[in-house]
Amino acid sequence: MVVIYPGSFDPVTYGHIDIINRCAKKFDKVIVSVLNNSSKKNMFTVDERMDLLKKVLENYDNVEIDSFNGLLVDYAKKKNCSLIVRGLRAVSDFEYEMQMALVNKKLAKDIETIYMVAQGEYSYLSSSIVKEVATFGGDISCFVPKVVEKALREKIKGGQG
Ligand code: COA
Q1: Which of 8, 129, 130 to mutate for ligand 1's pocket (most ligand atoms within 8 Å of CB)?
Q2: Looking at ligand 1, which atom is closest to the CA of residue 40?
Q3: Which region, left, alpha or beta, applies to residue 126 given φ > 0 means left and ψ of -120 to 50 means alpha?
Q4: Residues 104-115: pLDDT tens digits?
Q5: Using CA atoms, how far apart are residues 68 and 123, in angstroms rounded to an integer?
């Protein structure tokens, strides 16, 4: 069984990696897909985000890194996949996730969204929080792998943060 784990991943954090790691154990294949048309202002380009994902997930044989634009359900159909996985960190995620799942269900009734509850130690984590802490010189080593930390520091130093 194949699942798609979509998101912005700007940048990938240990919270995302936890979900991917658990999915990789339960499913035959996990397609981690970076959203390419986000209305969010991203720090990293899609290629940079994919590159970081590839680096931190290089030891997984059954994880593919990809990107998509347009509707997630159209992308899922194109990939022949009927299962979307999302992480739930706290009750505050629920309303947004429920809205997305219901819209997706309306658009494509055969595609299911399933949720994985984030581990408690990551329930407060978000890419924005990591970027903010890094911008002010805080220690982010417990939030992201070394390669992501380095990329963040370089971006911030280059004035693109
Ligand atoms: N651990 C740590 N952080 C997590 C996390 C986890 N397990 N799960 C989510 N997050 C964080 C992300 O870091 C991100 O933080 P940020 O806002 O600070 O960047 C935030 O939660 C939510 O981001 P993400 O999971 O990347 O979702 P998104 O809202 O950026 O994008 C898509 C969600 C890609 C699934 C959705 O926008 C989409 O499907 N877009 C395509 C258009 C479409 O089909 N629309 C119709 C359906 S509504």
Answers
A1: 8
A2: 30
A3: beta
A4: 999 999 999 999
A5: 26
Give the model confidence (pLDDT) of 7-55 as tens digits: 999 999 999 999 999 999 999 999 999 999 767 889 999 999 999 999 9
Separation in Å, CA 112 to CA 128, 142, 143, 146: 28, 33, 30, 34
Q: Tell me if the pTM is above 0.85.
A: yes
Top mutation candidate among 127, 128, 148 for ligand 1, by most atoms within 8 Å of CB: 127
- Among this protein's residues, is 127 annotated catalytic? yes
SS3 letters across the chain? CEEEEEECCCCCCHHHHHHHHHHHHHCCEEEEEEECCCCCCCCCCHHHHHHHHHHHCCCCCCEEEEEECCCHHHHHHHCCCCEEEEEECCHHHHHHHHHHHHHHHHHCCCCEEEEEECCHHHCCCCHHHHHHHHHCCCCCCCCCCHHHHHHHHHHHHCCCC
Q: Show the domains of the chain with their CATH numbers.
A: 2-157 (3.40.50.620)
**Which residues have C-beta within 8 Å of that of residue 42, sequence separation ≥ 6?**
8, 10, 49
